[in-house]
């Protein structure tokens, strides 16, 4: 870990609320500069104490041209970009059969493509300076699919697959990437960022069962704790590709991995029997 961290410039999406706001405040409080992007945002949302170290940027991450313009504005305003946090996201809940095409595409537009556009816009700046750290805010939902969060999980699985490839592609340029998988935090994702499908009657009992489980087992934390972990992450000289935030998500990750390994081992004979190398067939 670094003993002292020089002042750096952050570009944070979804910065007006929840985890994004907590990340922005933590960076500003330590003396860093922040380009805070969100659909609706203004300097007074953070008070008046940060002066020109705070640059609020109204931004819809699904608008690729607007993303490129916002990143360019931030880079020109501050002179560089050091940490890019793709935090903007929405949650669409519903059983897979219930989703309309528009609803399914909208989930991917924000959670996958929005992050992709930000990465594409930021990388020329990071590559030119030979350094930078991209942080992708994923979710516990990327550990596995669960009833009624299938499309949300799909968007986060896709984000993580893209990010793994991207991490290898940009490492040679001195750019680091970390996928952060948070558990539950007290944000307004379940209110301002939540949409739901039109329920189909056959799924009523399953929906009621899931709602009971969440009501009984939901344990959320203060966003401040995630922000403290974020600072420790970006201060590291050797940040991990993945970082779990929270005991619940940590335990769940190990549990799901063990179950998958057990299943793979149980079907090892079938898996291995499905492969037997042969020469390429002769052209017809």
Structure description:
- With 284 residues, the chain is of the alpha/beta class.
- It has one domain (9-247): NAD(P)-binding Rossmann-like Domain (Rossmann fold), CATH 3.40.50.720.
- Helix content is 46%, strand content 15%.
- The protein has helices at residues 18-29, 64-78, 101-129, 150-170, 204-217, 223-235, 247-266, 268-273, and strands spanning 9-13, 33-38, 54-58, 83-86, 91-93, 132-137, 175-182, 194-196, 242-245.
- A 7-stranded parallel sheet has the order 3-2-1-4-6-7-9, with helices on both faces.
- Strand 6 (132-137), helix 4 (150-170) and strand 7 form a beta-alpha-beta unit.
- It is globular, with a radius of gyration of 21 Å.
- 38% of the residues are buried.
CATH architecture: 3-Layer(aba) Sandwich
If you average the pLDDT, what whole number results?
92
Number of helices: 8
Annotated CATH homologous superfamily = NAD(P)-binding Rossmann-like Domain
Number of domains: 1
What is the helix content? 40-55%
Strand order of the largest sheet: 3-2-1-4-6-7-9
Shape: globular
Determine and state the CATH class. Answer: Alpha Beta
Low-confidence stretches: none
Distance from first to last alpha carbon: 61 Å
Order of helices and strands: EHEEHEEHEHEEHHEHH
Radius of gyration: 21 Å
By CATH, the topology is Rossmann fold
- DSSP strand content: 15-25%
DSSP strand count:
9
Topology:
Elements: E1 9-13, H1 18-29, E2 33-38, E3 54-58, H2 64-78, E4 83-86, E5 91-93, H3 101-129, E6 132-137, H4 150-170, E7 175-182, E8 194-196, H5 204-217, H6 223-235, E9 242-245, H7 247-266, H8 268-273
Parallel strand pairs: 1-2, 1-4, 2-3, 4-6, 5-8, 6-7, 7-9
Helix pairs in contact: 1-6, 2-3, 3-4
